[in-house]
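## retry 2 of 3
previous attempt timed out at serialization; input unchanged, resubmitting
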Amino acid sequence: MERYYYIGLDIHKKIIAYCVKAIDGCLIDQGKIAADRQSLEAWVKGLPGPWIGAMEATIFTGWVYDFLKPHAIVLKVAHPAMLKAITAAKKKNDRADAEKIADLLRVNLLPECHMLSEEIRELRRILRYRNHIVRTAVKMQNKMSGLLMEVGVSYSKKRLHGKKYFRELLERVDEIPPSVKELLQLSRSSYEMFRSFQKRLVATLRTDSLIRDRVHRLMTIPGVGEITALTWVLEIGDPERLSSIRKAISYCGLCSAQKESAGKEQRGPISKKRNKHLQTMLIEAAKLAPYWNEQLAIV
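## retry succeeded, writing output
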């Protein structure tokens, strides 16, 4: 029977702490390496044999996971919140964290989280950046309104962000100081740039063959638009990983937190242990739905 080694990785921006153990818990190797591809490649070549690895989910996990996956028998990613609850201790440092991950892995107690494919994660990154751009564009809109209110200019809220109305407003209103006009024009140009860029990003996602058919099928559901469909596809990934409706609702953050003790159950506000990107999009869709559906408006 082939002998496997169990490796725990604690990943940071500049260093990666590692711990290599045998199945019986015997420490084989422990140390730190630089967090770059060259150092990782040299480290992998020096490993004593076939290995199974695990790491905590962080902002740095993606590229390390993609780089090491072809070299490992199995590579897992641990859920950070659940991992913290299991491994809470007085002593906490990078080496200790890597060792704890290795121990949980070898005894099959690692709280594993789902890792989307590299291709889906790349598309999801584009979508999340698009959402960031939209939020920034809204800030520019609000800034233009605020500048006009500061100098006491009356304007039409619905028409302000139209090109023609905005241009005419600057030309006909004399009480706007030159400095404020410059700031308004700068805000307007930024707003138009963000809008144009987000449209290009959505077009990139729309035409991707990996998700195109699934997005189109979701859009056949009444009330599901393009952005909602894209968000669902790219944040959920494979829907079969959520084995029940309850798990899907919990993952989306559409249920309240539950606390039960001594037969007494207490429900708190909407849960914060969720996919915040998916929750935000679904809540926004729910708020807009009554404007487009008469039955929902009555409710």
